[in-house]
Amino acid sequence: xxxxxxxxxxxxxxxxxxxxxxxxxxxxxxxxxxxxxxxxxxxxxxxxxxxxxxxxxxxxxxxxxxxxxxxxxxxxxxxxxxxxxxxxxxxxxxxxxxxxxxxxxxxxxxxxxxxxxxxxxxxxxxxxxxxxxxxxxxxxxxxxxxxxxxxxxxxxxxxxxxxxxxxxxxxxxxxxxxxxxxxxxxxxxxxxxxxxxxxxxxxxxxxxxxxxxxxxxxxxxxxxxxxxxxxxxxxxxxxxxxxxxxxxxxxxxxxxxxxxxxxxxxxxxxxxxxxxxxxxxxxxxxxxxxxxxxxxxxxxxxxxxxxxxxxxxxxxxxxxxxxxxxxxxxxxxxxxxxxxxxxxxxxxxxxxxxxxxxxxxxxxxxxxxxxxxxxxxxxxxxxxxxxxxxxxxxxxxxxxxxxxxxxxxxxxxxxxxxxxxxxxxxxxxxxxxxxxxxxxxxxxxxxxxxxxxxxxxxxxxxxxxxxxxxxxxxxxxxxxxxxxxxxxxxxxxxxxxxxxxxxxxxxxxxxxxxxxxxxxxxxxxxxxxxxxxxxxxxxxx
Length: 541
Fold this sequence. Notes:
Blueprint lengths: L1 H22 L6 E14 L12 E13 L2 E10 L16 E12 L3 E8 L1 E2 L7 E2 L1 E2 L4 E2 L2 E10 L3 E12 L2 E2 L3 E10 H5 L4 E13 L10 H4 L6 E13 L2 E13 L9 E14 L2 E11 L42 E14 L7 E12 L13 E13 L4 E12 L10 E15 L2 E12 L15 E10 L3 E10 L6 E11 L2 E10 L2 E5 L2 E5 L2 E11 L1
Antiparallel strand pairs: 1-2, 1-31, 2-3, 3-4, 4-5, 5-10, 6-7, 8-9, 10-11, 11-12, 11-13, 13-14, 14-15, 15-16, 16-17, 17-18, 18-19, 19-20, 20-21, 21-22, 22-23, 23-24, 24-25, 25-26, 26-27, 27-28, 28-31, 29-30
């Protein structure tokens, strides 16, 4: 009976969504809506272990917005019946829930904006505050409250907000207030060829320290005040093809649940440079984090209990083996950097023929002497990679990628590094004006002996392959397999078909999924292994 519930849930949500989109008309206003439904029916698998006790999981999101001139309003309904296996929100007491997860009303004028309800926003690079939604991670830390923005021409922008943050399917017991200021120095002085902004932010989190008498924050964590203060200063400069930006952030004494036992101050430095000229572009990013992990509430846990945005500074891959073991940012203390270089070479006589070259490096190192056994700087992560894309003709394109990744299982404390060399070949052949065939071949070479990989980071060598057939713009069919030829000898197969029409897309797939980290935007959550049937639907109307 569980598997029958999948189409029933989707049909019900679609009916409600189309009803709202087709029937709701308020005066001369415009209604828009979007629906996303992700459902899995889990099956037992003797190779990787049985799935969850509840065979069925489904995450559903229906968003409806209304706008009339300068006024807008909206709601978001969410349903977890129960939440998909591996999502932290499914570990909450009320795992089966259909509720009003978001609402807002907003008025926007030429010089000011006021919004009441659930707020999504970010100050600077997110080092001190970011509220956002990521459905792939099951993360939503919107702020229920009020926000005001005032703009004085192009010279000055002032923003203020206040509210309580959402934690999974409920709201945390803390309150957050913040202010952000941006001053355009270039506009004040009339510099037409130069862009120069000076910015700053302040954020305060307040939460009573006596809500749980079993936790003595004062004596154990040495935290004597419930008020956390954070501040940052930023500068953004742009001239011709050169862009420079930097930010410094500071936080008062705070604790990061699960990572520290003593309240400490924190700080962060972020710097970025970008240069582009014709078909060449080079970017470099540096970031230092020192105890900058910040919880929404001192009485919560998990990936969703995060007030600021601290993604890993690494390349984000879509290839299976290149993304087998992504790096997890060390908010306690790290120095990290990334360099990207892009160059494109095109034929003047045949623009459809070109070469694209991309070289990337990312690395993360320990920050303090006590983080390393030797007292010196220790490597936590390194990735040196390049890819070459060649469009041979209108019908044939190839991509070759190589990545050498080094990971420290002890976060740089010990000298042992796990090394993987990954090779990827990607070929696309468009043999008809609306038909194409794409194939991937991947190989991961684990250089260390099997005895050194018993914790499961590499498990020896891997191979992977994918074949995808597309009939644009409607159909796509794919099959893939990821096989460990080292220690486990396990196949992780997957296959599916998708259909798209207009703004609606439906995908049905079946496969075995390896345990590991699922990442989005440099932020990751752990997903346990499972085998099952997956139905994904997205639509907008």
